[in-house]
Amino acid sequence: MTKGRVKNWGLRRKGHQPSHIPALEIHPTTINNEWILPPSKSHLIRMLYLCALSKNKHTLQNFKNLGEDAESMKRCLAQLGATFIPLENGIEINGCGIERFQNSPSTLYAGNSGTALRFLIGLTSRLPFQSKVDGDATLRNRNHSDLLDSISLIDVNILHEIENEQLPILVQGPWKGSDLSVNVSRSSQPYSSLLLASCGLKEPVTIKSKGDAVSRRHASVTIDLMRECGASVDVQDDVTLIQPWTSNPPSHWNVPTDASMMAFPVLACILTKESINIENPIELEHSLGHEVMLEHLSAFGIQEEAGTLTYTGNVASCEIDLRDANDLLPPLSAILALSGGGRLYGASHAQHKESNRIKSTADLLESFGLRCTIEEDGLSIEGGQSLIMPSEFVDTYGDHRIQMTAILLATQTGATVEGPELHKIAYPDFLQRLSTMPTEVLVKGIQG
Asked: Quick one: how far is CA 336 from the chain centroid?
């Protein structure tokens, strides 16, 4: 089935010939009031890695589906020698230890996961053989220089296979030296990558952080999980000292619920004006900065008690700092537009995600007739707005959080939304929250 033409293409299609783009055709439908949130992929990817770094058997539990980002990490770790056995409520992992990782004859393909990609770059920079690391079109458009600059200073050999392209790259270690520095002003992932890659070294490692750190809670969870596995990590201002360590995770390790996904049942509650029950509520200690959303629930006209969200309609304007939670930008923007409005700030690093997430979120709102003002580090949004049906195909820029926000908005208006499987990156069961399953279609695209 083919729909009408698209006005223009997203960045990831730049340079390609016109083609048919997969999308979801969504008709107005109800949203189920029972939700099960996915596991935290931030925790899950780190836990998979730490278990693979161990020489023992471990079980990660408390989830049904990995999601595509964690699957990408698992697949690449399996290529290097770790083994994985799926279980009904988790996964069993037999690690091999960093000194027993094997040279993979095929590319370590991280898919859409920037976290997996950067962790794999860190890991392969420790290995005494050449590894090819790659990702999908969105990752090929992203800048990875902060991490590559850090490891190049300790004589890691890095070769770009295609001139003037970010990926794929060829990486060959080992590290020669133990004093590193890394820019943390655009992402915490390069810092976390170096932290994890220090496993198995025979001397202490010092990492100096440069710039105004963002996504600090994600860096903190890396350190917390390393400590659970036996690492000694001391952080003093911008200097981190890691003593020699080997990874020894718990034999059975619970993966927490993804707190960032809480924004979607909150948006659903505002859209439907009906209560939403969350079967596996988030725990604040695992929220990775996303508790800023919970602190403003009353301003959205939402009351939460024991995992149940209830719409009150008593809204107020609010300002929310997303320095440590830029993943919330797309759904929170829609939430503010439909409730009391306000301002989202501190998210300048969101410009370095799958797309420039600030601009692409503004484009998303505009598609549904919602107004906002783009600022240097976020968005200013008028409250009390109403949705209209998009007149054109909704571009999601390869960003699963924009796609998921668009799908929920489309349940009220109808729409054709690009990327029928983007939600599987983090929330494979997301479409099951809708009472009527959207139809997959092909949309004819023309390059603008």
From this structure: 22
Cα separation, 399 vs 160, in Å, equals: 25
Report if pTM > 0.85: yes
Domains 2-38+257-445 and 41-254 share a fold: yes
DSSP bridge pairs for 342: 318, 381
Does residue 113 contact residue 135 with C-beta atoms inside 8 Å?
A: yes
Bridge partner list, 131: 171
Q: What are the sequence ranges of the domains in the chain?
A: 2-38+257-445, 41-254
Residue showing tokens 């770009």: 160
* CATH superfamily ID and name for 2-38+257-445: Enolpyruvate transferase domain (3.65.10.10)
pLDDT at 13: 40
**Structure-token pair, residue 161:** 């296979």
Per-residue pLDDT of 236-294, as tens digits, reads 999 999 999 999 999 999 999 999 999 999 999 999 999 999 999 888 777 766 788 98
Per-residue 3-state assignment (H helix, E strand, C coil) for the chain: CEEEEECCCCHHHCCCCCCEEEEEEECCCCECCEECCCECHHHHHHHHHHHHCCCCEEEEECCCCCCHHHHHHHHHHHHCCCEEEEECCEEEEECCCHHHCCCCCCCEECCCCHHHHHHHHHHHCCCCCCEEEECCHHHHCCCCHHHHHHHHCCCCEEEECCCCCCCCEEEECCCCCCEEEEECCCCCHHHHHHHHHCCCCCCCEEEEEECCCCCHHHHHHHHHHHHHCCCCEEEECCEEEECCCCCCCCCEEECCECHHHHHHHHHHHHHHCCCEEECCCCCHHHCCCCHHHHCCHHHEEEEEECCEEEEEEEECCEEEECCCCHHHHHHHHHHHHHCCCEEEECCHHHHHCCCCHHHHHHHHHHHCCCCEEEECCEEEECCCCCCCCCCCCECCCCCHHHHHHHHHHHHHHCEEEECCCHHHHCCCCHHHHECCCCEEEEEEECCC
User: Which residues of the chain are under the pLDDT cut of 50?
Assistant: 1-17, 446-448
The order of strands in the sheet holding 83-87 is: 83-87, 90-94, 57-61, 252-254
pLDDT at position 349: 66
CA distances from 99 to 45, 194, 317 (A): 20, 17, 54
- pLDDT tens-place string over residues 353-397: 556 899 999 999 999 999 999 998 999 999 999 999 999 999 999
Task: Answer whether CATH 3.65.10.10 is correct for domain 41-254.
Answer: yes
The pLDDT value recorded for residue 436 is 94
